Amino acid sequence: MSEKLYRLVTQNNQIDLHLSGRWTLSNLGDIEAKLVREFEQGLDQVGLGQSATGGATFGGARQKIIYTMYAEKIEAVDTSAVLIFKKLENLVRTFNVDSEIYYVDLSDEFASLKDKLAEFDLNQPHEAAYKFVSPTDMLAAFGLASLNLFKAFWEIPQLFGLFVFGLVEILRRPFEFKFTSMVFHLQQMTVPAIAIVAAVSFMVGAVLTEQAVVRLPGFGTETFVVGFIGMVTARETSILLTGMLVAGRTSSAITAEIGSMRMNEEIDAMKVMGLDVMKFLVMPRAMAMLLTLPILTFISIISGFAGSGVLLYMRYEMDFNEFVTLIYNGVEISDIGTAMIKTPFIAISMVLVACSEGLKVSSNAASLGYHTTVSVVKSLFLVIIIDSIIAIYFTQISTFGGG
Asked: Furthest-apart CA pair in the chain: how many Å?
């Protein structure tokens, strides 16, 4: 194979390497070891001092070598071959730093690969794929994660302040608000999400009702279950399910949209044109989310009631009129109002986090994926935290009927 791929010629202080054929990984075989060995022998013959394998010196002198590689007959080349040629070049430089190296008749592909690997250090040790993690490293990683979490929550009041400022600007100059943009985002956030919110809420309502009836002993317990399930659905499960679904669907979409604009330098262009990012990007989405979440939450409540009613009718033959009467008597307007009061806090938190993460995206796809994931995780966390805080607060002060 070596006779077909290369021919090494040495004379005086010159080394000529004539290449031909396909210099690709699948075609090289063990050519590297043979070529390097013959090349070192050629260095000894032209008197370039001691070889890398410990060969004899030629009069103890380190002559200046003229090394020329002819590539006019090469049919194909890849990175593995270029690394071999770089190793030969390093051998020449190691023996005599003043040696001259020439490449003749390189193809565009060859020259491009050579330039890309010019700074690659063959002698630099590579880090192991897996490293031992000491307890100290684990503690440091935990501390760093805690610090990043604190910074993330510290951003929320700052973002809320910007939102309040933007809201004041809308009230001062209502005709400058991008109403068309808000309606567009309202449609994008609400209409496609109705089906999944309704379906999930329907199934959860049915499952909660079934579990409650089965766990409560005694005959006729389904009549007592309706009021309890109706209250739980109206107060808690509806807003939690809706918030989580919106966090996974809408928050990620907002971050991806703004992040893509960031990658394409559209946001930089807006700033150069003197356009306010808060006014044009954040506020329309924030106002749309403020309207979207209550609508979807109400749909979730109705769907949860429907799931409970269908389950009781199919499993326990409860009449529809009786079910509606029990819901009417067991669920108060204040229960639905409790869920609705939570929606603006959750909506603003989610949309501000989503927009903030989108604006942090840098000019690569990995950054977009990372910040989209962070946006969803933060939004889910905020949904649970805000819902819990408001629910406990209402319970403590006995507002809206004690809970």
From this structure: 111
**What contacts 42, CB < 8 A, 6 or more positions away?**
8, 10, 15
Domains and CATH numbers, the chain: 2-116 (3.30.750.24), 158-397 (no CATH)
The residue with tokens 């927009």 is: 355
Q: Give the model's pLDDT for residue 285.
A: 92
Query: CB under 8 Å to 355, separation ≥6 — which residues?
Result: 159, 254, 255, 258, 281, 282, 285, 286
What are the tokens at 256? 């991806």
The answer to whether residues 113 and 56 touch, using CB atoms and an 8 Å cutoff, is no
Q: Is 191 exposed, middle or buried (0-12, 13-18, 19+ CB in 10 A)?
A: exposed
pLDDT for res 256: 93
Q: State phi, psi for 23 to the nearest 5 degrees.
A: -100, 75
Contact residues for 287 (Cβ-Cβ < 8 A; gap 6+): 170, 177, 182
State which residues of the chain have pLDDT below 50: 1-2, 48-59, 129, 399-403
Q: What is the pLDDT of residue 56?
A: 39
Return the amino acid letter for 226.
Answer: V
What is the C-alpha separation between 72 and 285, in angstroms, rounded?
Answer: 61
What is the C-alpha to C-alpha distance for residues 309 and 318, in angstroms, rounded to an integer?
8
Please tell me the distance from the alpha carbon of residue 36 to that of residue 254, in angstroms, as a whole number: 56
| pTM confidence score | 0.64
Select from 203, 211, 247, 252 the least CA-distant residue to 228: 211
How far is residue 152's CA from residue 132's CA, in Å, rounded to a whole number? 29
